[in-house]
Write a structure and sequence with these properties.
about 0% strand; 2 domains; about 55% helix; elongated; mainly alpha; single chain
Length: about 140
């Protein structure tokens, strides 16, 4: 079980404290906030982050996020992702819209040539709607 840690919130940005210097204060607050986000991932992630190439600047959140994403995101395995997509079945307590959303999420990593067609096929073949199954494929319009 994960341990519960008390997290101190970031102080709010208060533009009215010094209206003549809001731009500089905002820039500083944003830099602190972006570093705070990295810090909130935990000490273990921060240690990994510091070892990644070209990530020494914690003030550049976009670079930090990209480096950590590349580190943690596993290499894509399209066969496995397509397998998961093809195994998806609409559950009895799932609406057609919920199933459609789940299929769109699953299809993101499949690299299909025609994702909409593949999703339509899954809706027709593995959905619970007999009405939808009776419609000809050409008139099925779920985007």
């Amino acid at each position: 079980m994960a341990s519960v840690t008390n997290v101190s919130p970031m102080p709010q940005f208060q533009p009215q404290t010094d209206p003549t210097n809001t731009g500089a204060k905002w820039t500083t607050w944003i830099e602190r906030f972006e570093t705070y986000l990295i810090y909130q991932a935990g000490a273990e992630v921060y240690k990994i982050f510091k070892t990644l190439p070209a990530t020494g600047d914690t003030k550049d959140y976009a670079k930090a996020k990209d480096a950590l994403t590349k580190h943690f995101e596993p290499a894509k395995n399209p066969i496995y992702e397509i397998y998961n997509f093809l195994q998806a079945r609409q559950s009895v307590d799932e609406t057609i819209h919920q199933f459609h959303t789940r299929l769109r999420t699953l299809a993101q990593h499949c690299d299909f040539h025609d994702t909409c067609f593949e999703i339509k096929m899954q809706l027709v073949c593995n959905g619970t709607s007999s009405r939808l199954r009776r419609k000809p494929f050409v008139t099925l319009t779920i985007n």
